[in-house]
Design a protein that fits this description.
Number of strands: 10
CATH superfamily: Hypothetical Protein Pfu-838710-001
Shape: globular
CATH architecture: Beta Barrel
CATH topology: Hypothetical Protein Pfu-838710-001
Helix content: 25-40%
Number of helices: 6
Order of helices and strands: EEEHEHHEEEHEEEHH
CATH class: Mainly Beta
Strand content: 35-45%
Radius of gyration: 19 Å
Length: about 250
């Protein structure tokens, strides 16, 4: 049976003027995404990584294979974004969005087209990195009943503008409790992402150590945050040359 909650509201912290229903805590779980990237570069390196995972696990079958369009935005007001898009989400999803706005910092906003669906993605850093490229972050990623273009217009109505448009082909696997994504990105070439989503902030350090140990066993190294930031900035300045193509660049 559906439940209705009346009369109790909360404000989104420093973003005054936005009120959403206060829902019991078992609906208001914050999710922390711990993700470490490794730059593989070539298809041969990507195949070698898959072979190592297959040898260790005995089998390796992708749980998802898809092509994605990702549109990154900058500027804007995350509180206004909530107001302008909340009609697209359930009450439970609105509370998840509230958690991001209240607890996060340095927000990254993007829209995504994947497997015929369209998603709004809002990420916020909870460590020393940025929300676009960091190891530990809060994440809101939900399907919306709108086209990619229509969602982009709603994001722009909150004061955001395009930062860059990205295209990629993704294979996703599960391996020893992790999600492992092997991407062929416009600009970057092949990149692996080792990810685990947890519910408690006090698990962040242990989860990062777990991911690092598995990567070491597989013989892949973390892409340093400073190099990733340089690559990200270069792509953002030149994305029109790479979006939707197979072209790549090398930047140390």
């Amino acid at each position: 049976m559906a439940q209705t909650y009346r009369g109790v509201f909360c404000c989104l912290g420093k973003h005054s003027g936005i009120m959403v229903p206060r829902i019991p805590n078992h609906f208001a779980m914050a999710h922390y995404e711990i993700e470490i990237k490794s730059l593989l570069g070539s298809q041969a390196a990507a195949e070698a990584l898959k072979e190592k995972m297959r040898a260790e696990s005995g089998t390796l079958t992708p749980i998802s294979e898809n092509k994605q369009l990702n549109h990154y935005f900058e500027g804007g007001d995350v509180a206004a974004l909530f107001e302008n898009t909340k009609h697209l989400f359930s009450m439970e999803q609105q509370v998840k969005f509230e958690k991001i706005v209240t607890l996060g910092k340095d927000f990254s906003v993007r829209t995504r087209e994947k497997d015929g669906g369209v998603l709004l993605v809002v990420k916020a850093s909870v460590d020393e990195g940025t929300s676009a490229n960091t190891v530990s972050r809060l994440e809101f990623e939900e399907l919306v009943p709108a086209s990619l273009d229509a969602l982009d217009r709603l994001v722009e109505s909150a004061g955001y503008q395009y930062q860059a448009k990205w295209s990629r082909e993704r294979e996703e696997y599960t391996y020893r409790g992790l999600n492992v994504c092997i991407d062929r990105n416009a600009g970057y070439g092949y990149l692996a992402e080792f990810e685990k989503v947890i519910d408690a902030e006090d698990q962040i350090a242990a989860t990062r150590a777990e991911i690092e140990a598995i990567m070491a066993e597989l013989g892949v190294v973390e892409l340093p945050q400073d190099r990733l930031a340089r690559m990200f900035d270069f792509y953002n300045s030149n994305w029109a040359d790479y979006y939707g193509t197979d072209k790549t660049f090398i930047l140390e």
